[in-house]
């Protein structure tokens, strides 16, 4: 039980995917201008990341390993992620138009989010079990959501602040992200997984 | 060596084939039947977004029709829209419900710019963002965007917005009513060529 809790803390805070492992930086900079869109992106990413880590674990354990073609991992995971995202989009559109309106435009964007492929590959590298993979994916997404929402809240404030001209726009965003990453380094060593 | 290569290719092909089949099945199975009806109804409606039907725009009305609301609540569309809705839904066409307004020729809003005080009230009222302007500066209407919905007329505090009838082009030309056509020759050729007033005189 503690083990699972540690995985969550590790992925959300210590080895945060954005600020410690620098994965998924494009949506981190791209959709963090508004809190509302950041929330939508976070929810969609959480959904897809958890699902994709489950599916890629299954494909790896039941197809790639028995056939001893582990070297096809990257390409088949890309395939899995693309299909999962596409299928999720169809299913959500069919079952809940409301949810589709919230997540709709973000779902296709997530296909190209490197954090998704990163989680799938890291799961294999760390030899996680099924449940651990699920938690790892969910934790990674929760960490991504946490920093994305925090960052977008900060950027909304910065947009109204009196920033010196050379730092305006993306520059101050980069600096803020850097400082945030430094702050998250404070969690290093909190848990050892 | 060759076995491995073939195995890899077969695995990938199998995976891709399975996923492709899954997606293909899903796209057929999970198609939005109910929503595609809404899309079709929405395509027939005139997209004036005027709200005369009692719904806040054309799409909400399309959704209401799909759920069984009456099809005769759209004055800007008029007879033609009711007819095509009746065809689409396979129901009897009904006359336009007068409660929601009368059918009028297509019109666009025109702001008498000299009188505009720049209050931006019409900009907020416009459902299609067809009015440009800024506070305390004159506003004007983008004619190609205006749907002629009348919603900007009421909010204007100085009544400087006119609804102007659009001149009919070659696409929506209708022949003039015979009774209004001036007679080009002197006398009546047959008795029915006479106008009623002349005939009685």
Task: Briefly say what this structure is.
Chain A: It comes from Vreelandella halophila. With 193 residues, chain A is mainly alpha-helical. Chain A contains nine helices and no strands.
Structure notes:
The complex is a heterodimer of chains A (193) and B (201). Chain A is mainly alpha-helical. Chain A has a domain at 32-162. Chain A is built from 9 helices and no strands. Chain A has helices at 2-14, 25-30, 35-64, 73-95, 97-103, 106-110, 114-125, 130-160, 170-184. In chain A, helix 3 runs antiparallel to helix 8 and helix 4 crosses helix 7. The longest helix of chain A is centred in the last third of the chain and has 31 residues, at 130-160. Chain A is globular, with a radius of gyration of 17 Å. Chain B has 6 helices and 4 strands. Among the domains of chain B are: 33-100, 3-methyladenine DNA Glycosylase II, Chain A, domain 3 (Orthogonal Bundle), CATH 1.10.15.40; 105-168, Alpha-Beta Plaits, CATH 3.30.70.20. Chain B is mainly α and 201 residues long. The mean pLDDT of chain B is 81. Chain B is elongated and about 85 Å long. In chain B, a hairpin with a 7-residue loop joins strand 2 (131-132) and strand 3 (140-141). Chain B has a two-stranded antiparallel ribbon with strand order 1-4. In chain B, strands 2-3 form a two-stranded antiparallel sheet. The interface between A and B is medium-sized, with 19 and 16 residues.
Give structural attributes.
heterodimer; A: 193 residues; mainly alpha; 74% helix; B: mainly alpha; 3-methyladenine DNA Glycosylase II, Chain A, domain 3; Alpha-Beta Plaits; two-stranded antiparallel ribbon; translocase (chain A); transport (chain A); membrane (chain A); NqrDE/RnfAE_oxidrdctase (chain A); cell membrane (chain A)
């Amino acid at each position: 039980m503690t083990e699972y809790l540690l995985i969550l803390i590790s992925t959300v805070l210590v080895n945060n995917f954005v600020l410690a492992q620098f994965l998924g930086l494009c949506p981190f900079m791209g959709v963090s201008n508004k809190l509302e869109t950041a929330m939508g992106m976070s929810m969609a990413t959480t959904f897809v990341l958890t699902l994709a880590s489950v599916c890629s674990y299954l494909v790896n354990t039941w197809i790639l390993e028995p056939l001893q073609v582990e070297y096809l991992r990257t390409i088949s995971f890309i395939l899995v992620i693309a299909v999962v995202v596409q299928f999720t989009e169809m299913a959500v559109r069919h079952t809940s138009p409301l949810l589709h309106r919230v997540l709709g435009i973000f779902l296709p964007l997530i296909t190209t989010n490197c954090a998704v492929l990163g989680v799938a590959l890291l799961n294999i590298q760390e030899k996680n079990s099924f449940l651990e993979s699920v938690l790892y994916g969910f934790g990674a997404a929760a960490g991504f959501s946490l920093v994305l929402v925090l960052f977008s809240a900060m950027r909304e404030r910065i947009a109204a602040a009196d920033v010196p001209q050379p730092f305006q726009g993306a520059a101050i965003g980069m600096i803020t992200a850097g400082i945030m990453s430094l702050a998250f380094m404070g969690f290093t060593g909190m848990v050892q997984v | 060596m060759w076995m491995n290569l073939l195995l890899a290719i077969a695995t990938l092909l199998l995976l891709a084939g399975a996923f492709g089949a899954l997606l293909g099945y899903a796209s057929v199975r999970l198609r939005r039947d109910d929503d595609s009806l809404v899309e079709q109804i929405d395509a027939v409606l005139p997209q004036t977004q005027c709200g005369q039907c009692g719904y806040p725009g054309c799409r909400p009305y399309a959704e209401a029709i799909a759920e069984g609301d009456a099809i005769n609540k759209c004055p800007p569309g008029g007879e033609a829209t009711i007819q095509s809705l009746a065809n689409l839904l396979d129901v009897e066409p009904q006359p336009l419900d007068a409660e929601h307004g009368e059918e009028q020729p297509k019109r666009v809003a025109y702001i008498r710019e000299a009188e505009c005080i720049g209050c931006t009230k019409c900009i907020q009222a416009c459902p299609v963002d067809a009015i440009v302007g800024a506070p305390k500066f004159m506003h004007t209407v983008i004619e190609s965007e205006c749907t002629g919905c009348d919603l900007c007329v009421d909010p204007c505090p100085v009544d400087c917005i006119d609804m102007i009838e659009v001149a009919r082009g070659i696409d929506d030309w209708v022949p003039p009513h015979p009774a209004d056509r001036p007679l080009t020759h002197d006398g009546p050729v047959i008795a029915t060529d006479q106008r009623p007033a002349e005939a009685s005189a």
